[in-house]
């Protein structure tokens, strides 16, 4: 488990990414709720996240600001403050990023990139050859994060995100983990 941890030193505090377990449902829901704050961004409940965490193939990570040198797994608040979460699912040789969220005050410090990296590393360990995700066409910040992590646009789902104020298309993105992006054109629907 410890080799999955990746830390980013930042001034006096460090941001540490730890594998999520069954007990992290509540913390992940709190982070998700703080991050998805617009009318079309429905937060996920603690029960929904906990259900996912015990579903086959689902795995996640929590990012926390750690102000203690104790092992990340044993820290309690306020020694460690959760600031980010990611949930992914592996099916056969494919994985999907289900959601990623970073609390507004912790953004643009590399937390999202670290969570994504941890998730991709885990997928590679399990022999996954490609990872997919969907992102709203209007979410340019998330799109930049994904492009920076090597994801390429590979499709659109018109009107995928429906909400009281209308609908937005989803951009489908894919990242190959076996280098095939460099050899073959991407086709996905
Ligand atoms: C998308 C999100 C997870 C990014 O988290 P983050 O911790 O701020 O991301 P990082 O600091 O790792 O930044 C990674 C890249 O994202 C982009 N980015 C981050 N914040 C940005 C901003 N405010 N404006 C423009 N680009 C930004 C940059 O390209 C950045 O890489 P760079 O610094 O090398 O240029 C976060 O903004 C968030 O939780 N948003 C709300 C929830 C959401 O939209 N989730 C995605 C749903 S598909």
TrEMBL record:
Transmembrane segments: none annotated. Signal peptide: none annotated. Keywords: Acyltransferase, Transferase. GO terms for molecular function: acyltransferase activity, transferring groups other than amino-acyl groups. Residues 15-178 form the N-acetyltransferase domain. InterPro entries: Acyl_CoA_acyltransferase (IPR016181), GNAT_dom (IPR000182), YpeA/RimI_acetyltransf (IPR050680). This is Ribosomal-protein-alanine N-acetyltransferase. It comes from Varunaivibrio sulfuroxidans.
